[in-house]
Design goal:
Number of helices: 21
Structural class: alpha/beta
Strand order of the largest sheet: 6-7-8-3-9-10
Helix content: 40-55%
Radius of gyration: 44 Å
Shape: rod-shaped
Number of strands: 20
Low-confidence stretches: 234-261
Mean pLDDT: 82
């Protein structure tokens, strides 16, 4: 741009709008040049097109036809963010209705354009305080806009327009909402700014105010009626205020600086998000409510699944873990299993010598009638070895268990299950040492045990005798029903199962038995509990998804409610990525806080479970909590993106019009 070239030049500019099915021509072939340092007043009646012209001059709107040049650059060729850069660094806007952000203080409102310009915090704060002091409202720095008079609010608007040292000031009806005294003060400030060398463009319907300008442009019905100069108005330029329009589009160096300040920009967006959330507490709470419930459901449901799983495994462990049970026959459905006589106690004794075996318990079974005094009932007699109770995890309550001599001597020592003892001795007398009848055979009680059983019980009483006693006195043979093998602690159950199978095939000459591995049962139970946990967690995730939909909906409503704010931010220099970042940070922050509250609610549910003494406790895992936080962040990002994107794509002039 040459020294005497106009800073602003409009060539055959037209602007048309559709109003229903009618085309409205707001501007018609406007040709206008404005030089640097001029003070221009644009006057005209309502609907004459002066505000439309101002919007095009401020790069808030684009011409329908013709071209608009700033310092020789055709703005028609600039992208949206490049126009934002023009507004940020070279234009300062003063609005009729001030357009201050109500949740920010006076000082923070003044700083907003400098934040988008990525000025350091200390520098912009110092500059903002200087401007507020110059405009006579320094003492109001930490007041909210609604605590100021109209004149004071307009002064804040002027300070905001100057924070980035803009050389073109666009004032749209700056005194339209002010009393006479405040109007004179604002015009005086604009005159002083003009005297410093700034270019001042005022849109007004007040002729007295327009006469303060050095140049008066009258517009009517979209065309310029007159363009006159007031030669009595002097022009004093301060060279310190002059600034070049060259390199309006950021250079590579500026882009590197922008990347360097990305964390600062993110921090500022975080602070603004907090202020916005604080200013609209109820809306914020309603937004995060779905996330709170969803996260609490995920955390508590996973903890519920973990607690249930542990309780089930504890119950199974009482039966003995890492065991193999060897049955006669090909399978449980083998009808010939009762005729197989090759599974004998000698097999158990031989297996006990293997290095991977810790204990072996052969077992036989029969049924008979049990009598004690006047009490008579059916009983199931289990003939077991002295290692049976260790292998099966049976707990001794009173008395003693069998020893090796009991097995060798085929003694009539009897062990009762707890329920059986309570049935036979309802008065609470001590059963130890008492004699009872099993059919016609008398046996002495030596111990009481407690076992854990799954599923519903039955009406058959259970007792234990040495298996050798049952073989000789009740069955008359040496075969066993099954053999329980307790493996050594470090033994792999699947490897041991293969070894036992080979060992017994070698002894029997054929595979006339089958083996049940407790590890397989544990795996099935664990898998089932995992499936249950996944099921309930999936249901909880659905509720989290629904919460995400709620976040998106309320954020969309928030965008609609804050359209004017978005337009203002864009007018004072915010690029699309600033707006996108602002709303996305808000959404993520809402969901993160909701996630934290949801986790706390999940822990509260666990406390309630503990207080009412449920049979199991909720077991929380760090992975589920971390996953919950990650989920809440993703919910904020995914469901907050669409509202944020919609906000960033709003046309600034359309957004500003929705006041």
């Amino acid at each position: 741009m040459l020294k005497n070239d106009p800073i602003i030049k409009l060539i055959n500019v037209q602007r048309s709008f559709m109003s229903g099915e009618t085309t409205v021509h707001a501007l018609k072939n406007i040709n206008l040049s404005i030089h640097k340092g001029e003070m221009v007043a644009i006057i005209g009646a309502s609907g004459s097109g002066k505000s439309t012209l101002m919007n095009i001059l401020g790069c808030l709107d684009r011409p329908s036809a013709g071209s608009y040049h700033i310092a020789g650059q055709n703005t028609n060729l600039l992208k949206s963010d490049e126009l934002s850069q023009l507004r940020l660094y070279h234009f300062g806007f003063i609005f009729q209705r001030y357009h201050l952000l109500k949740e920010l203080t006076v000082l923070k409102n003044t700083e907003v354009p400098a934040i988008y310009a990525e000025q350091p915090s200390s520098k912009r704060k110092k500059q903002a305080k200087f401007l507020l002091k110059r405009l006579g409202i320094e003492e109001k720095s930490y007041h909210q806009p609604n605590q100021l008079s109209g004149g004071q609010q307009q002064r804040v608007s002027i300070a905001r327009a100057l924070i980035n040292n803009a050389e073109i000031i666009l004032a749209d009806e700056p005194t339209g909402a002010l009393d006479k005294k405040s109007s004179e003060e604002v015009i005086q400030i604009l005159t002083e700014l003009h005297e410093e060398g700034r270019t001042i463009i005022i849109v007004t319907h007040n002729l007295e105010i327009a006469k303060k300008a050095a140049r008066l442009i009258e517009i009517s019905d979209g065309t310029i009626l007159s363009d006159s100069f007031n030669f009595k108005t002097s022009l004093k330029k301060d060279k310190k205020q002059e600034k070049s329009f060259n390199n309006v589009i950021p250079s590579k160096k500026q882009k590197k600086k922008k990347f360097f300040h990305s964390f600062t920009q993110l921090f500022e967006a975080f602070c603004m998000a907090l202020l916005s959330m604080t200013a609209h507490r109820m809306r914020t709470f309603l937004t995060m409510l779905g996330v709170i419930i969803g996260i609490a459901a995920v955390v508590s449901m996973v903890a519920l699944g973990n607690g249930t799983q542990q309780k089930i495994l504890e119950n199974i462990n009482r039966f003995g873990t890492n065991t193999l049970t060897i049955f006669a026959g090909k399978s449980m459905a083998d009808v010939r299993a009762a005729k197989v006589t090759t599974l004998v106690d000698e097999d158990a004794k031989a297996l006990l010598q293997e290095p991977y075996v810790k204990a072996v318990a052969p077992m036989v079974a029969t049924t008979t009638i049990i009598r004690h005094g006047t009490i008579v009932g059916n009983t199931s007699i289990s003939g077991v070895g002295n290692q049976f109770f260790t292998a099966e995890g049976v707990k001794l309550i009173k008395g003693r268990l069998f020893d090796n001599n009991s097995i060798l001597n085929r003694s009539l020592e009897l062990i009762l299950e707890k329920e059986t003892a309570n049935t036979l001795f309802p008065s609470g007398e001590n059963p130890i040492g008492q004699i009872i009848l099993l059919g016609k055979t008398a046996a002495r009680i030596c111990g009481i045990v407690e076992t854990q059983r799954f599923g519903p019980g039955n009406n058959t009483l259970s007792v234990y005798l040495p298996y050798t006693t049952v073989q000789t006195r009740f069955l008359g043979n040496t075969t066993v029903r099954f053999i329980t093998v307790l493996l050594a602690e470090n033994a792999n159950s699947h490897v041991a199962e293969s070894a036992v199978k080979k060992f017994l095939i070698m002894r029997h000459g054929t595979e006339d038995f089958f083996i049940r591995n407790s590890e397989e049962f544990l795996e099935q139970v664990t898998e089932s509990t995992h499936v249950l946990t996944i099921l309930v967690a999936s249901i909880a995730l659905i509720s989290l998804f629904v919460g995400g939909i709620g976040v998106m909906n309320i954020m969309l409503v928030s965008v609609s409610e804050r359209t004017n704010e978005i337009g203002l931010r864009m007018a004072i220099g915010a690029c699309r990525h600033h707006i996108l970042q602002q709303f996305l940070v808000e959404s993520v922050l809402v969901c993160l806080i909701g996630g934290a509250l949801g986790v706390s609610l999940g822990f509260l549910v666990g406390s309630i479970f503990d207080s009412i003494q449920t049979p199991f406790k909720l077991i929380y895992s760090s992975s589920s909590i971390i996953t919950a936080f990650m989920s809440s962040t993703l919910v904020g990002m995914i469901f907050g993106y669409l509202p944020a994107r919609n906000a960033s794509r709003l046309d600034p002039i359309v957004a500003l019009a929705r006041a």
